[in-house]
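Hi all, long-time lurker, first post. I run a small reading group and we've been trying to get comfortable going from sequence to structure in the token notation. Rather than ask abstract questions, I figured I'd post a concrete chain and ask someone more experienced to write out its structure so we can walk through it together at our next meeting. Sequence below, copied exactly:
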Amino acid sequence: MSELMQLNIGPQHPSTHGVLRLKVKVEGEIIREVEPVIGYLHRNAEKLCEMTYYCDNLVYFDRMDYVASMNMEAGYLEAAEKLLGIPPPERAIYIRTIMNELSRIASHLVWAGAFGLDLGMLTPFFYCFVQREKILRIFTEACGSRQETNYFSIGGVYQDLTPEIVDHVKAFITEFPRKLEEIYNLFAKNDVFIQRTKGIGYLSPEVAIQYGVTGPILRASGVPYDVRKAEPYLLYDRVNFDIPVSKKGDSLARFLVRFEEMRQSIRILGQIIDKIPEGPFFNPKAKKPLMIRLRGDGEVYARTESSKGEFGVYIVGDGGVKPYRVHVRSPAFKNLSILPVLAKDQMIADLISISGSIDLVFGEIDR
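-- Answer (accepted) --
Happy to help. Here is the structure in token form:
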């Protein structure tokens, strides 16, 4: 047996999708061991939430999975509103569902564009970001911010949707399916892309469940688990959509599942965009001047389906205006744990394809 060589990839490597360091032991060009090293982006968000009013903690959640901030906000509010006893009105529920699915699409587009760059494909990156920009413009119209939106609020949303914003959403869901197929074909009809993903980084459903993997990675291994179906929230028990599943379990399957998820998100948006009810967009109990006085007592756990998988938020209240304890179940952190299994005995050149297929965002992993 030849001597193992240790290589360091990252934490400044563009294809680690953030400040991830991979300590890789190779035998020739074959990976024998991978150790992910995290913590370079640690910002102590959970502890900061315990020092801040309930209504102000959304800014920390925005900056966890910063490419899907609306999904993060929804996860926090599912827990906080249960604890505080301030449910959002019907109009706000519709708005949140629309923004959640737009955020999911935007996140998957960032992933697809970056994944293409990882594998030497420049063109899909621009195609993906052109479409993502249309979503970010909708976000800007709705709340004045492109990425860290801080749009949802306890008991509703900060600003109502105007008819013009609704028209822009309708235009997007009309045009996007054709653009999505163009992007899909840029990948699917590229022989190099297929060779670098098909059969690479296989994950069995049994191992995925053992490691707590969720989201597109779990569904790409044949497990049809989606929080929107398993424990519906917002409007997900009132719309029809399918859970994309593949039994292949490789990097190509994870690509296919995410693209089908974008198609299903458009399907969801099409069912609700014309049905937004009239009425208030926030609960009167949560008027802005009173929000700092909101008091929570007890403990609650809520889970939602972010673009990365099951996003869980645990909050303990002691009767004060600030939470006593906040803890997050990060799907990206769980998904990262599977990397040593996926990469073992693979070629060193395939490590980038495998890690890229996981969709890592370190604002959420390190928190």
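A couple of things your group might point at:
The longest strand covers residues 297-305.
Strands lie at 5-9, 21-27, 30-37, 152-153, 156-157, 297-305, 310-318, 325-329.
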